[in-house]
């Protein structure tokens, strides 16, 4: 009978250890489930932020394209203005030389 009791005690101890491992496993699984739920929520938020960033980058690209075009047109206008100014200054210079030639 003693031997049977010893086996029962050993079996009970093993069962208690097994139960403790199962409880720990259940706690870990619950934590894992919570982490997965949190991860799913964060992924949805990240997807939304990525879409918003994509829109912002498109808007920025469009704005920069508009600014580049405006700068191109302005540069062209300045070039035309400078050419006209150079021609006008040349004409005035020639007129001044003609006046100076008459004074000699």
Helical residue percent? over 70%
Shape by Cα distribution: rod-shaped
End-to-end Cα distance, whole Å, is 147 Å
Could you tell me the radius of gyration in angstroms? 44 Å
Series of H and E elements: H
Q: What fraction strand?
A: under 5%
Q: Which regions contain 5 or more consecutive residues with pLDDT less than 50?
A: none
Number of helices: 1
How does this model look, in words?
The longest helix has 102 residues, at 2-103. The protein has one helix spanning 2-103. The protein is built from one helix and no strands. It is an all-alpha fold and 104 residues long.
What would a concise description of this structure say?
The chain has 104 residues and is mainly α. The protein is built from 1 helix and no strands. The longest helix is centred in the middle third of the chain and has 102 residues, at 2-103.
What's the structural blueprint in terms of helices and strands?
Elements (H helix, E strand, L loop, with lengths): L1 H102 L1
What descriptive keywords fit this protein?
104 residues, mainly alpha, 1 helix
